[in-house]
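Example for tutorial group B:
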């Protein structure tokens, strides 16, 4: 875990994690809506999460408690920092999920005024385990 790129990510160190499952993509508005409709979750704090055109966009404007509640509702839990980093970087110390090539618009949505995009829109940015949008 960690890196030498930023002071607050140092020192790099080895962490062992037990086997775990992680979703391939972020939770979508449609997935989260099923939890809200079943009275298992509270609504996100934005006005367009129920817009059918945004059903496959990641749910946004939820806090940690809402995310944790949803994860438990679907039978899981939120990943730890170590689990998330392993899912994103694999075991070979890569800087990014896709390897060492820097940031570009083929691998992820960044520095963009477009805002969120449909989950899974950047398959070239897949992690070694197939996780997307990391």
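The residue assignment follows.
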């Amino acid at each position: 875990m960690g890196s030498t790129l930023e002071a607050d990510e140092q020192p790099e160190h080895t962490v062992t994690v037990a086997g775990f499952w992680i979703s391939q993509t972020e939770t979508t508005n449609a997935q989260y809506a099923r939890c809200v409709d079943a009275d298992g979750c509270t609504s996100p704090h934005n006005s367009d999460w129920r817009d059918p055109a945004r059903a496959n966009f990641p749910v946004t404007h939820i806090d940690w408690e809402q995310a944790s509640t949803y994860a438990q509702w679907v039978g899981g839990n939120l990943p730890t920092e170590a689990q998330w980093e392993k899912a994103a970087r694999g075991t070979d110390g890569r800087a990014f999920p896709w390897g060492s090539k820097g940031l570009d618009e083929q691998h992820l949505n960044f520095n963009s005024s477009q805002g969120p995009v449909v989950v899974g829109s950047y398959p070239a940015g897949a992690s070694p385990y197939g996780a997307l949008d990391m």
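DSSP finds three helices and no strands in the chain. Compare this with the pattern of hydrophobic and polar residues in the output above.
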